[in-house]
Protein 1
Amino acid sequence: MGIILFIIIFCVVVVAHEFGHFIVAKANGIHVVEFSVGMGPTLFHVEKGGTRYAIRLLPIGGACMFEGEDGLLDQQGEGEEETGKPEREDPVDTLGKSGAFPDAPVWARIATVVAGPLFNFILAFLFSAIIVGSIGTDLPKIGQVGEGTAAEEAGLMAGDTIVALNGRKVNLFREISLEAMLNEGEAVHVVYQRNGERFSTVLIPKYSEADNRYYFGIAASPGYTKFGPIGVLQYSAYEVRYWINTTIRSLGMLFTGKAGVKDMAGPVGMADAVDTIYTESKQDGAYYVWLNMLNFAILLSANLGVLNLIPFPALDGGRLLFLIVEAIRRKPVPPEKEGIFHFVGFALLMLLMVVVLYNDITRLFAR
């Protein structure tokens, strides 16, 4: 069941991403050669309006291929059936005609590339609105302060509402939990509200040898708070911002060495996580399974959006970097140089995927 649910969630998230590319490309007159979900051999495909729509074997990605992108011509040559490129009855060199990706204005191409991650954020927002509208959210209100904890020493009390931590505005209690989890003993400047008035204090987290981490010493106020339509939209945006911020900070831990490849999860690890969530929530009924699956989809969609904006070869962010350079220079980077850049990046991504897959499988058998 975990595998089935993960594939469904993954497909929805990937389709949203690729549809973003697709719809903006179409709006700008760029011909989409193929719209596919998954990678590897084609399981099923149909062709409509000059675009091939395909489902591929491996649920580890997707593609929206544009005419003229990376030298892709809208034609079928010898051996093309093996490569999976769509067939046309009138093969022509289209790099010089309207409809090819390189012929579109640079700002149209930038919009097309950015649209994929943007649609992931939009999907995350829509799913967040369903959850917040259904059960509400966790406001940053303190429900309990532990005796002898850092929070008590800082003067915080149950009923206080945390407004900001180190100058960053707080809207969800999870933001406080995230700050505590990532803290390494640094003092935290806290702005809080009590009885309608604002105060500030400095909190020095306390280290727990048993858990090997620092704690603030506060617990959330029990229950979730529900809102009207405006509040639902507002707090749905806060939800998306939380997951984007969590992803960015997690990436920061990877780049600074505070986390490693072993802490990453690929499709196998994510499918296992979905199965665990399903197993733990099914006893509460289908409604809570549905909400928890939506929550996982928000996490996955926000992650995909952020990751694709990283200026790394073969990702949307890498392509976006070249387009920004082109906009500044007012001439494109030589296609062969950009092609090498993306090819190397793709090879590195595949290598990383193999390593992450190995780690996922190792963790499963280590149980």
Note: The first strand starts at residue 32 and ends at 48.
Protein 2
Amino acid sequence: MHWKVVLGILTCNVVLMSASYTMLIPFLPLYLANDLHADPETVNMWTGAIFAVCFAVTAVMAPVWGKMSDSKGRKLMVMRSSALIAVAYFLCGIVTTPLELFGVRILQGFAAGLWPASLSLMSAYVPKAKVGISMGVMQSANICGGIIGPLFGGILAETFGMRVSFFIAGGALTLITLVTLFFIKEPPRQVAPAPSKNAKAQTSPYRALLHSSTIRMLLLCTGLTNMVILLLQPIMTLYIGQLRGTQENLMMVSGFVFSFSGIAGAIAAPIWGRQGQAHGFFKTEIISLFAAGVLICSQFIPSTLIPFAILNFIVGLGFSGIFPSANSMIIMHTDPAQRGTAFGLLFSAQQIGGTVGPLLGGALATFIGLSYIFPIAGSLLVLMSIFLYFKAPAQMRTNPHSDAKAQVDAKRQETIERIKQEVLEKMRAERPTTNKAKQ
């Protein structure tokens, strides 16, 4: 299959995946209170538990699914995840108690991994020269789904109720499963190099990857970034209400402010991808981390909503370069036979950050106030960018695409010089014969 066809199909899949997730998750507290009749005093406890258990299970299982995508097939892992998530959504629509929803969320965490599986599948098709733009387009699709989901989910919940929203989301994931089954071919499986005869034992693929300082640095970077995102998200609506001075139509207004960042990200992600391809993904990672951190710190300054919303748009421009650059570096710095495992580890690191972020954000909001969370969160990203700049290994700083291009250019120049030399030698060999003929 042509890589552009695969990119088009997977982009549509990712939009459906992200929209299905975000049309449900923001409204889980309301679902607990209104449909499952949770005690008002325990709604917050159930909400925290239901979020945390899914992240925790996903963090454990993601590397396992990643390894299986390398050994069993990447298309199979996409279908596994989308089918099981579809089942989980359908079950969420029929549960009657908070405890049952908690159990289904465990299943959802077990099923998770569609995003890294899709990235791994795409990496098997995309040429190295197009990695940056492909990862940028996939990230834009993820962001676009995140914009559509809450708006569409709010309308559905108001009109038909939350249960219908779960069934529609389950249908969308079923569609992803069928599209993948019938329209995408399993890419040729890459075989990992055989261990040497003198090796004591074959190294675990996890240990082999974690032995790389580049991979460890990327795991730290993406985990911290996701922690910052989920440190801010739970308090954002409350802070917007504080800036407005009223709770009237708060959900609608918050949805628009959230969408500004998403729209900016959808626009900027492919641009970051192109810049990374041209100038190096390490540089774009540093710049996007630093820019996002500084801009988040500056959100502490506005005392009214409009400047804050404008800054939130600009923050999206900076944030959208972090994950595509990290994903591209994973592709560039891992063996094709280990990319599924690598993306699984990366996704696991993000889930760990996603588990810590809301807990830390809630504690900070309780003890120091909402506004101070922004400079703390932004400073974490700025410090990460500085740490990455000074401590990143030499291998991570290289641009494999540029190096490969330089090698090709060198070989081409060498071939040209060799042909010139052969022509000159041939001309010299023919000269005596020509002189004798004249005599």
Note: Residues 197-201 have pLDDT under 50 and may be disordered.
Protein 3
Amino acid sequence: MLTKRIIPCLDIKNGRTVKGVNFVDLRDAGDPVELAQIYSETGADELVFLDISATEERRRTLADLVLRVAEKVNIPFTVGGGISSIEDVDILLQNGADKVSINSSAVKNPQLINDLSGKFGSQCITVAIDAKQIDGEWIVHLVGGKVPTELNLFDWAKEVEERGAGEILFTSMDNDGTKDGFANKALARLSTELNIPIIASGGAGNIEHFVDTFKEGKADAALAASVFHFKEIEIKKLKQELQSNDIPVRL
């Protein structure tokens, strides 16, 4: 059985790690390179860096940050934010990223998924999907949950898989930053209907939420930010608890 992955997420704005609720009311959480090194040394399986200013303010993800992170960590890391071309991905991978995450650019140009997976391999391509429930239906949103699309979460996820994505990072914008738990029903449906790994994101508040998302949500990995950044949950203790609940993890 594949081990479940614990993935700290570092939301980057102007070169600093930030965290808020539903992507607003942001507060500083530290230097991303220092945090990355700490996570690498304390049991994280992977890292995700999302330049949240990139899509909103049309700024490209900084390749030099990737280079500095690559020098400090020995675990895989994914970089996202404003990536919209083969050239963007090429620079990031050359500078040391293991994977890239695309979101808005994939919705606006779905062929980009095919192009990137064809060029670099599906194992390098993560498609991030942010969704909210509207009248009982999960609707894909862009720009940190501010802009609704006409896409249904599950239909879009299937298309993403068919186009060659290697995994999906699903964030429930209803749960993000609330610390009330992950959107496990939606995660379980995604995990059941798709054949690629699903990363759960949005809502982690305590260790039990991670147990629930692996058991009830059938997630392959769980991503969180503030509970790790502000030391509310220690990754080592989290993994020990997961193991005691018969959830396979790398210790």
Note: The radius of gyration is 16 Å.
Protein 4
Amino acid sequence: MSVRPRLLLVAPTVVQYLGGTETVVAQLARRLAAHAELTIVAGRTGEPPRGPALDFPHARIELPFAGRDTPANRRLVRWLRLNPFRIESRSLFRALDARGVDLAAHDAILAFYEHDAWLLASRAPGVPRLHLLPGVGHRRFFRRVDPRDVVFLGARGAERARRKWGLEIASLPLGVDDAFFPRRPRTRPDSMRLAFVGRLDGSKRIDWLADTFAASDLAARGYVLDIAGDGPLGDALARRHGATPGVVLHGRRTPAEIAALMQHARLLLHPTELESFGLTLLEAMAAGTPVITHELASIRAWAGDHPTYAAHLDARAWLDAIRGFEDDAHWASVAARNLAFARGFSWDAIVCRVIGLLRERGVRVG
């Protein structure tokens, strides 16, 4: 009888938050659980958990940590002058040490954040490691972390490492869940629903989007802005736009509800200023829903010209782009092209590649 390998996934935010990274972790973990004994290390704050459903066989180690939205994190940012992501990682690993978790008891460790990978290098030097990262900020990262243990999710990180540092780092594409693909051919919805899906924080500029919608004539013309997600701007949005005509605040929704929302939307609006995976855009394309977003290198690197790029925080440009999709032929052409593009991405195929990378490191994954 074969023995399943013991894999440890270090994923500080996967229980507490819901975003692109957390979705990636959950999708990979769900499929890896069929091949290994899986343990997930996750952080918990005093707030209710909002992460994706982890409804598959696994063990979990939950530890207190200073999550990015907590008062403790903000105080430490001011005091230590470190970024909130580094503080998250340091606080989690401090709790990991205090709990006495034996990292060497595992056959391999997977990490998804740059700072976690940095800390693991000194805490688990003899354990095979695979760091699935959206990117790396500094060349000195590779003084401690072997580049051969790093795989970038998305093409941007690999291109940057090659251009800036002359390093050839492997990369994997994003993945999309099958639930997002429509069961029948999409036609442009009669309802004029515009969707925002994501974390309600400043970097996503949902505050600007809601204000722009409210100040326009879109609601008077029949448009509705559906906002799905939660985060630090949730209460402020509710106070400012809870009664705004045409604005619907859905709060946090399950993946199945998000897929249904995408499939009934006319457009996805994604005015982000900071993006790592860009998974929401891919999910919209898979649903056959055209996307309007800002042109960021992290998006264009994998999505090319499939999204519609509107000028940065330019209300007129965004409104013109929305109105451009009132043309049936234009909507249908973009939706069909994006859907065909998205069909090239599959979580099952990506996990097969992850398993292959683990085997290269001597981990016997079935």
Note: The mean pLDDT is 92.
